[in-house]
Write a structure and sequence with these properties.
heterodimer; B: mainly alpha
Amino acid sequence: MIERYIEQASSYASDIDNLILLIGVLVGFWFILVEIVFFGLIVAFRARPGVKGQYITGEEKHQKRWVGVPHELVLLCDVAIIIGAVRVWVNVKQTLPPAEETVRVIAQQWAWSFVHPGPDNKLDTADDIKTVDELHVKVGTTYHFKLEARDVLHSFSVPAFRIKQDAIPGRVITGWFKPTKLGTHDIQCTEICGIGHGLMPARIVIQSPGEYATWAAAQAATASR
Amino acid sequence: MATPHEHAHEPHDHGHGHDHGAAHDHGHHPQSFWSKYVFSVDHKVIAMQYMFTGLAMGIIGAFFSYVFRMQLAYPGHHVPGYGVVSPGEYNALVTNHGTVMIFWLAMPVLIAAFGNYLIPLMLGCDDMVFPRLNRLSYQIFLLSAIVLIVSWFVPGGGFGGAWTAYPPLSAKAQYNLTPLGSTLWVVAVALEFVAFLIGGINFVTTAMNSRAPGMKMFDMPMVIWMIVIASILFMGSVGPLVAGAVMLLFDQTVGTHFFDPVHGGDPILWQHLFWFFGHPEVYVVLLPATGIVAEIITVFSRKKLFAYKTVLYTAFGTGILSFFVWAHHQFIAGIDPRMANVFTATTVLISIPIAEMMFVFVATLYGGSIRLTVPMLWALSFIAEFIIGGVTGIFLGSSGSDIYFHDTYFVLAHFHYTFVPIAVLSVMAGIAYWYPKMFGRMMNETLGKIHFWGTIIPFNGIFIPLFLTGMAGDHRRIYDYSNFPELATERLGHLREFATISLLVLAAFQLVFIINFFWSLKNGKKAGANPWDANTLEWQAPSPPPHGNFAELPNCYRGPYEYSAPNREKDFWPQNEPV
């Protein structure tokens, strides 16, 4: 459902979208069923002159079945949803595939700073490339991001990747993503962080390795001048 | 404390009669305006105080939503009746909209107003067990409302750190830029909790001790059970948050660092304390709402409530489970990711008792003789709409899909599909249903139906588009989306505008309610004691009930839902009618 609104640009975007679809189908079925029965009963049992209501306690076994059986089926659906949710969660949040590259993401009131490893592919060395409000990544590469906050809570969200993680001052939180499509997408802060919360847009630029190398070289050249 | 039965014989010597002197001798003597309406200890007057204060606060909260929705639909434009909205003001508006609607509308009206009004009347006694405590509860509540209102006008403006008040933003003036507003906000919320703690003690004690002779626990009307369970949930969950609020207040004012990571504190601690209360709180307001719905659908389908005890067990089950789901608000907050698996399971499983409760309500309609009166329309709409809120919650309780949906408008639309049925639809149902009892006259049926359709259609018109913008990635508390290329599209702009226009329509139709409410006070048809042919004891008292409620305190012979009983000519059977 979600891909109709926003592109799937990471390796796990389709997993999350499929989970949302699974939940949508299951709860949609129950929603439609209950509403049909509900409106059907209202129409079928409208008051008619001379017709009294029926005396049904709902305490007897054959009566309780009418809510008992649907209720067990709901439980089955719940189990399916829990399994689906945990599988996606473990893949996206609980396990970290080995990183091919690591970036540092720093949130503060009200801007994003990004640190890209330079040609040596290591962070915190002299050739790091630092940018503000623009993150460059290579398509098809597994990234770790090291997320930090300088002041208050922020949240690093890339809707096209379906990733979101709060940033907490005093901690470095590591997550991962693997871009699968070229393009440029929004990075949003999704945790209220003060009056500039709505003024904290950033962009993520997904490039081919060649384009990225060109961009990195240009950055290095600007930095050394 | 005197039992209600003793009151019947010696009303002048027992119970609340000697709390405050001769002026309150069950209306035998004229009372001054002040002692009758302002400093009264009569549960019905206190209920009305809570209701009118709550509804007035609700109007303020609705005005806030009007202002920020106008800003969202027409960013940067002058909002009629307000002016241009700055980012700081926008944050303060959304923060206080949420705060007001939950703590100063839903809580006072659903629990305090209906609880105070209905508990003694439905149990067949003459007042709450602790009438003066009851008065104190309202006075503290009123004070809390005044403190909150003052917080909007102090230098720096009202607090704008969201109703969840996550530190460090909420804890430090250098970050939130509202040094006074945020402190007063915390004080107001803490005071409000004290008011409801006192009220809750009173509700539970009264229900346990003051039932009419013959009324067993399982003969209590469902709404009373629900208010009692809700009060227990509230009292069980609010402690940690009061502690948290004091810690936050100290962080703000005296320089402690409970939530400041730089000095050894932890911002996540606040989130645990807040949501340990915050999630049960959802059920604290939901349960009384479902109780109101249960009363109304049985009366207007002339049916016994399907499986009374099952409904009760679902409420117990929901209440207990609600203490074990709180961290689903924090999946992506930086908690250990393995915790999410446990909280996903508990959260999704809470659908079991809630779904069962909805099934039972639907089953109650089967075989009924359904009259679509105004209260019935509201009660039925609660069921139809709350189911939407329920099923969309599953997307958010499942950790995997919450990664995408967290803090988007999908969340916002989801909880409005729970809270609007709770705080608006069930409240309107309750007002329409008990208005004849409260004021002795019927509300106008035609105006009531116009108001109903004028509310229910635009309500969906507001929040269905917001589900869609949430799916497209609109995140919350952003005052202007034009900074985000993926969100600044024309299509999303149209959806936001549609939601705002729907809000304007909904607001306009509330005038019909206000007119109907006041017009009917004078011009409504005289109601009589029992206009709906209902069974519960409040309908056996005169309308409106005098101070002391019943001319003679009733005995109880049966459960509350004996409608259409076989071998009886009448299709109702009041609880106090001997066989």
